[in-house]
Specification:
mainly alpha; 2 strands; globular; 9 helices
Length: 200
Amino acid sequence: MHPTLLAAVTRVSATDSRALRAAERTAAVAFVTTLTAVAAQISMPLPFTPVPLTFQPMVVLVGGAVLGARLGMASQFLYLALGLAGLPVFAASPALPQGAARLLGPTGGYLMAYPIAAFITGYLAERGLDRRYWTAMIAMTCGLAVVFTGGVLWLTRFVPGGSIGAALAAGFYPFVIEDFVKLLLAGGVMPSLWWLTRRP
């Protein structure tokens, strides 16, 4: 093949490859965003707190670990943008509206912490913490701590007296054991993926 033609084909192939990778990344971000919205619909309201039980935190953390820091964060920013646009992507609630008002309500702190939690989990995963079970647990625990910190601090605006103790009782104690159990299960996802991809 003529050198000029070979160079042109190489440039086209590289452009196609970059476009394919960009499309794959976009699809992956959209997929995790969709999973986050679906997980929000699997929720259980509790009578003593405005914060429902959902599977969202686990999707946020696993999504961050799989996508990495920037794409994981992007998936959650996209999720919040869809919610702000009024799409019914937030957990169903008889008292809390969909749309931008949800971010200003009692659960807004948890939602706004999702992009940061995904970034931190993804950042740690990119540095190899996702390759073994216990280190993957550490990465996801750091992300979960961000979710709870953001949620509880925001919740102080809505509990009687605005105290941290009341916010912990409403937004941390009822959920921490269940979320930790889910974390134990989710912690095996990334090491399992690494093992599968390294199989001959």
